[in-house]
Amino acid sequence: MKVDEEKIDDAGLALLHLTLHDDFRAWKQLDFDLMNRLHEKGFIEDPINKTKSVVFTEAGLKKSEELFRKLFANNE
Known about the structure:
Elements: H1 5-18, E1 20-21, E2 25-27, H2 32-40, E3 53-55, H3 58-72
Antiparallel strand pairs: 1-2, 2-3
Helix pairs in contact: 1-2, 1-3
């Protein structure tokens, strides 16, 4: 099966928003390749460290909230 990594990246960034804490940190329990792509796109700081969370960039925090609302909000 061919996977659309852009869609995976969007969903992953939105899911990181779900674990948001301390205003700009999120738990990094997602695939390493996904986390590296998000870092390369400038949405998160370097995920390769010993902490269990990752720091959003300003652009990443904004985009993660936008994608979370788009993909998961119940607008009833």
